[in-house]
Amino acid sequence: MSDTPSNTITLTIDGREVSVPKGTTLLKAAKQVGKDVPHYCYHDGLSSPAQCRLCLVEVEGAPKPMPACVTQAMDGQVVSTESEAALDMREGVLEFYLVNHPLDCPICDMSGECNLQDYVHAEGRDHGRSREPKRIFGRDDFGGDVLYYGDRCVMCTRCVRFMREVEQDGRLTVVERGNRSVIDTFFDRGLEGTQFSGNVVDLCPVGALVSKDFLYKARAWDLDHTPSICPSCSQGCNIELHTRDNLVQRLKPRENLEVNAFWMCDHGRLNYEWINHGDRLEAPLVREGDTVRAMGWKEALTALLQRLGDAAEKGVKVVASPLAPNEDLAALKALVEDLGGGEIVFRMPRAEDEIVLKGFPTMARRRDLAPNGRGAELLGMRRVGEDDGTGGLEGVSGHDGVVIVLGDALADQGPDFAAGSALLVYLGTHSGPAAAAADFVLPVTTFAEQEGTFTNHEGRVQRFWPALSAPGAARPAWLVLGALFAERTQSDSIRKADDAFARLVATHGAFAGLTYDDIGTRGALVSDTVPLSGD
Amino acid sequence: MAYPYVSDREVRVLSKYFGDPMQRRVDTYVERGGYQALKKAFEMGQDAVIDEVKASGLRGRGGAGFPAGLKWSFMPKQPTKPHYLLCNADESEPGTFKDRELLRWDPHQVIEGVLIASYAIRAKQAYIYCRGEFFETTQILAKALEDAYEKGYVGKDIMGSGNDIDITVHVGGGAYICGEETGLMNSLEGRRGQPRVKPPFPAAVGAFGMPSTVNNVETLSAVPHIVTHGGQWYRQWGTEKSPGTKLFCVSGHVNKPGNYELPLGFPLMDLINDVCGGMKDGKALKAVIPGGSSVPILDAQECADCNLDYEGVQTAGSMLGCASVIVMDEDTDIVKQVRRMVQFYAHESCGQCTPCREGSAWMLQILKRIEEGRGTEEDLQTMLDMSRQMTGTTICVLSDSVGAPVVSSINKFKDEYLALIRRGERVGVA
């Protein structure tokens, strides 16, 4: 729709004039003047049944209050969202909601981020007038990660509509009618086997649908929210890491209509425990004969630099990881080139099938089960090995020069990996065969502990931010690799992630023109499109 | 078999053959002039039929009283999609029992009305949506439809006119809300019987997403007569704004309850005292619900000058609705009566809209508590607030129906509530 004057209408909302394109709903027009009309059943990603009756507003000349979520704005309309009548209607609806609501906020997972709490505090009565016994449904295990507390339900049917319209597998429905209405599943099947049903927990405006995984784990107000990118496949869904006590407590999708709309898949949502694993590498470890000694960074890097140059004369072979951000991979590549160049390979665990979200088909749980395979390929790295993320390292293991391993713990390899190499350097987060075999073990951070970018399957570069503090002396790999590069080339070392990204942009044409500022929270496409060999 | 009660003050147009099972037979119906209106309609053409019905001033008999001809004229004149006529036979309003009788005694009259209406709105398929509990009725209707098909009055090339109209009888599951026209369409499509948000209106997006018109059984039953005799003929009865005859379903404390077909504008007190043979046991009149349980209650004083047409009842402070007159004598416990009605609506609320879903059930809880003598005066204010917040705030008007009897009874019979609240006793009950 173009913004020609004929397609624009002007109306008055709460005394303020606003111009909107034809077809805009009153709810969205009101948002433009800064009024967030309370609503439950309406959601940007779903159809609008206009049944919660919370978004009723007064429209001059209309015989009845109008639901703002479905009423289209008309030229010259005078709308009041906060007139006495509108507030009276909303106060009524909110009082009705509380007639049977158990008000068990102290033990409810949603407490603190609950729309019912917010709305009632803002516009509800000070005291409810209901003296009647409450209707009791109890709770129901819906299967999957979803638990249903019927008594808290406000019957907005967002969950039912999500399953029908977005996942397009109508596993949920409303049964019974009147105030006996309750959300239920069909027979015993429940949500078991669905791939996106975790979203109904996010959609639920109250604490009726909760995540079993998150149940009783943390209070909403204790959680820090950090914008991030889901690391579980190459879709690059925008997410938030919700953290407390330096642990990731849960993942939530973050709206990005270009990538994942409002959704994320259950695979990604529940695949976060690895970020919290203890047993981290916390200090540089250097092998001296038969012993391994922990060192400070300066000492370790000095020792490494002493050996690196000579060892590299026999060539460099590198194993990188598609879990590593662009910045890490670029710093790795710069160092490798300075050492005389050498092949960089990475291994990608792959799923058998893509799982497409039918109602938003540009989103899928992709086959590549790591976030940055595309970034690695744009930097000239080559994927090797099997679909289960093993094998493919014969050439590296037998190498007699320098072997550098970044991020891949080499779980399928023995401790004699690259036993014949002149120097084996491992930059990683956890111990494993790679750490056991390495001459130098350099502790680096996970994506959750550093700033950086991933390039998703379609070539969209997306930023993430640090949510956790790194354990011990672990540092981002780009910082470690950058320091080695700076020492060897006698150049300025890079101290900030955006400088690391700027160096990547300067040296790799595909990323030309991008800056952290441009990418922002929405991401930006790389200019070059190189087909990803996995897709 | 004679129909239970008749009155010489009746004008029996639609109910002429009530009590005569022979009328159910297609041959008898045709002998008595049946299906001639359909033939005439085909000769008149669609627009002329609509104009004739407009001229008659026939208003929808389902409760809202919307002019039938005008409703038909909303349908597209040049169909680009299939059109549907939906005959609403989901008669569920407490106190209403006219459509059932029309279907039982004169099913071909309904079928002929459906055919004419379908023709007028350019529909080739009509559905008669029958209430789930209409077991005998549906069997009679299905038999009549089968006969009509056999005789070529329904189906392909009706009476050689080249017009095709099919009729399907659909039996609902027995939910009050499926009588609401958009709830009916959802139910017909196999969805939950829940009203839809309007706009879009049925004439634009109706059953199966196609332009549709929903008409009540009684409205459609009047159509053949209007087509046969003309719109002006129909206007010989009734008032300027409410022309024609209407079936009044009288129940409650009268000597002769039943269905009476009377001209609109008939005085309410004449209906009670003359047509229905007066109050039972000579008791005094206390209150009347003139249009089915969802309209405000009239007290005896308001009944005195009330004429039974759409405007007359409105002037008296209620609504004609579907003309289901529930008469209550001096011994009636108003609170119990209101509680019983609210109980019905709380049970039948579809549960979509919050004010109705939660409000109707809560209202019932409060009324029960008052009835048990555990109410407080504040409850009355709470109920008035709730009624205000439940009226006009929902997708359909079921919610309004909860408020109407509550508000009118609190305003008119407050002492009965107060007596229960103060003494835990019931006023007027020995």
Provide the residue-averaged pLDDT of chain A.
94
Q: Number of helix segments of chain B?
A: 18
Find the structural class of chain B using helix and strand composition: alpha/beta
Task: Look at the structure and give the CATH class of the largest domain in chain A.
Answer: Alpha Beta
What is the count of structural domains of chain B? 3
Strand residue content of chain A: 15-25%
- Number of helical stretches of at least 4 residues of chain A: 15
- Helix percent of chain B reads 40-55%
Q: CATH superfamily membership of the largest domain in chain B, which one?
A: NADH-ubiquinone oxidoreductase 51kDa subunit
Q: What is the CATH topology descriptor of the largest domain in chain A? A: Rossmann fold
CATH class label of the largest domain in chain B: Alpha Beta
* Model regions low in confidence, pLDDT < 50 over at least 5 residues of chain B: 426-430
Q: Care to describe what's here?
A:
The complex is a heterodimer of chains A (about 525) and B (about 425). Chain A folds into three domains: about 5-80, Roll (Ubiquitin-like (UB roll)), CATH 3.10.20; about 100-220, Alpha-Beta Plaits (2-Layer Sandwich), CATH 3.30.70; about 285-525, Rossmann fold. Helix content of chain A is about 25%, strand content about 20%. Chain A has 15 helices and 26 strands. The longest helix of chain A is centred in the first third of the chain and has 17 residues, at about 85-100. The radius of gyration of chain A is 27 Å and the shape is elongated. The model of chain A has no long low-confidence stretch (mean pLDDT about 95). Chain B is an alpha/beta fold. In chain B, strands 6-5-11-8-9 form a five-stranded mixed β-sheet. A four-stranded parallel β-sheet of chain B has the order 3-2-1-4, sandwiched between helices. Chain B is globular. The two termini of chain B are about 40 Å apart. Residues about 425-430 of chain B have low confidence and may be disordered. The interface of A and B includes residues 70, 91, 99 and 155 of A.
